Amino acid sequence: MTDGAVGGAASASPDASGSTSPSPPTDGAAPADAAAPAAEPAALSSTPPAPVASASAPARAGDRTDDGIDDENWLPRSDTPAFAAFQTAVEMARREPGAAVGAFVEAARKTSGFYAAWFNAGAAAEQAGRPGDAEAHYRKALEVRGDYGLALANLAALLGRTGRDDEATQLLDDALRRYPEKAGPHLATALRALARTDLAGAEASARSAMKFDERNVAAMSVMSRVFHAQGRLDTARFAIDNALALEPGNALLHLERGSILLAQQDGKDALVAFERAARLRPTLAEAQEAYGLSLLDHGFPVDAERAFQALVALEPRLGSAQLHLGNALRANKKYPEAEAAYRRALELDPALEGARFNLGVLYIDNALPGVDELGRLQRAVDELKTYRDKGVVDVALKKRVDEYIDATEKRIAKERKRREREEKRKADEARKAADEAAKAKEAPAATSPAPGVESTPAPAPEVTPAPGVEAAPAPAPAPEVVPPPASAPEGAPPETPAPEGIPPSAPAAEAAPASPVWSSGAQPDSLDPMTGRDATRPSPPSPLPGAKP
User: Fold this and answer.
1) If we measure between CA atoms, which residue out of 152, 120, 3, 165 comes closest to residue 73?
2) pLDDT tops 60 at residue 444
C-alpha cells in the first residue's frame, strides 16, 4: 500500500527530458482501503487494530505500537491524535512542502514507531530543497524500521546525488544482509538499478521483492516500468493495472499508466490517466506536465494553459515549464505573453533550443502589437538560423527549418518591394498635387484684364430646344434702308430714274438695334416671342412680294 510519500521524493529516474520522475510511494504493505478518505499518498489501511506492542521498541513484523502501527500498518488508528496530525500534514504538503516538514515531525512525535511520518518529513524536506533535513528524517525512519524500502531508496538516491555513491551502495548492502527476507531492501535495490537504467538488475530485484511480498505495489510498478522500457507494452500495462487494483488512489501509478497508453497510441485514455494523476496529487509536477501536454494535443488549450501555470508555480526555475506555457499561450492567441514565456525559457535554460524554434514560428505566423511586420519576420529568420546553426541532427527537421527560412526571406523581399512601390506612388501623388496647387495659384493673374481694358464677354451658350418642341424660326434680317440722297452737288450727273414698276423709295425707317435695349423699367415679357424684338416698337418693313432682294 502507499507509504505516505508526498512530493515524489522516492528514488528518481531520468525521463526523456532529463528531469527526474519519482518512483511510486509504496513498500509492499497491506492493500489500501478504497473507501477510505483520499489522503494520497497517505492512503488508509483497512486492517483492524491488533494487540499493542511495546511502546518503546521499534515496530517489528507482526508487532504493533500502542496506536496500531506495525510492518503492515504504517498509519496509526484513525481515532488517535497522531492520525489527525498526519492528515493535516498531508494536506499542507500538497500546497507547501516546506511548511509540511515540521507538521510531519509533530505527527511522528505523537506516537512511537511512526516511520511513515518520519519518511514523509524527509520527502517534504527534499522537495523544499533542504537535503540535510531530508537525510536526517530518512535516517530517523530507518531507526524505527530498518527494512523500510522507500526510506532506503530515497536515502540511497540522495547520497548518490550528493557525491556519496559508495555510501549509498554500503547502505543497501547492509540492509540486504540484515533483512534478506524482507521486501524493502530488495525494492530499494530495484529502484536504484532502474535509476541507472540497469533494466535486468531492476527486474531481478523487483521479482525478489515480490517473492517475499506478492502484493508489493512498488515492485509491481518497477516491473511495469522495466517492461515499458523494453517495449513490452501489453505486459507493462498488465502490471500497472494490477498495482492500481491494489492502490487506486496512487497518483504515480496513474501517471505511469498514462505513459504506457501514450506509447500504445491510446491518447484518449492517456488523457484520463494524466487527469487523475494531476487531480490526486496537484503538487506532482510530472503529472501537471503530462496532463497539460495531453490537453494541448487534444485541442484544449485553455485547460492546458491552467495545467502549465500550475507547473510553473511548482517549478519556477524549470525552462521546459515556460516552453510548455508559451505553446499553450500561443494556441490561445496570447502572442505577446507567449513571446515572453519563450524568452523566459531561454533565460532559464539557454540550451533549450525548442524555445528558440517555437519563437521563430511565432514571429512568422502572428502579428505582435507595436512590432513592424518586416522587423518581426526578420526576427523569425534570425531565431530559426540560430536554431539551425546550433546543430540540428534530425535531417527532416533541418529541411523543414530551411524551408521556413527560405519562405520567410521571400516574404521579406516581397514586402520590401511592395513598400518601395507604395512610397513611389505616394511621392508621385504628392508631386502632382503640388504642381496642381501651383497652377491654380497662377491662374487668376493670367486671366484678369489689365486696368482700364474692358473684358470681352463670353458668348452666350447655344440653347437646345426640349425634345418634341419645335424651335421658333430666327427673325428675318432687316433690309438695309438707303437714306434719301441729298441735293446733288453742282456738276453731279443727273439722278437715274427708278426702274419701271418699282415705286419710289419709302421713307427711311429707323434701323433696328442689334439687340434689345431695355430701360430701367422695361420687362423681358415686352419682347415679341417670334422675333425677339420689342413688341412696343414697329417692325421693319418686309420686302414686297416678287421683289428681288
Assistant:
1) 3
2) yes
d(CA 69, CA 62): 10
CA dist., res. 19 & res. 263, Å (int)? 19
Among the listed residues 216, 187, 217, the one whose alpha carbon sits nearest the alpha carbon of residue 203: 187
Residue in 193, 127, 123 with CA at minimum distance from that of residue 151: 123
Closest to 4 measured CA to CA, from 247, 276, 205: 247
For 204, the grid coordinates are 531481478
Q: Which three cell numbers stand for residue 379?
A: 526576427
Concatenating the DSSP letter of every residue in 29-84 gives -SPB-TTSPP-TTSPPB-PPP-----SSSPP-TT---TTS--SS--SPPTTSHHHH
Beta-carbon-side half-sphere exposure of residue 53 (alpha carbons within 13 Å): 20
* Max CA separation in the chain (angstroms): 184
Supply φ then ψ for residue 11, to 5 degrees.
-55, 140
Residue 328: name the closest of 352, 315, 312 by CA: 312
**Predicted confidence (pLDDT) per residue in 221-241, tens digit:** 999 999 999 999 999 999 999
**What residue type is assigned to position 122 of the chain?**
G
Q: Under a CB-based contact definition with an 8 Å cutoff, are residues 108 and 144 in contact?
A: no
Residue 255 dihedral angles phi and psi, to the nearest 5°: -65, -45
Which residues partner with 26 through β-bridges? 2
Give per-residue pLDDT as tens, 24-54: 333 333 223 222 222 233 332 222 222 222 2
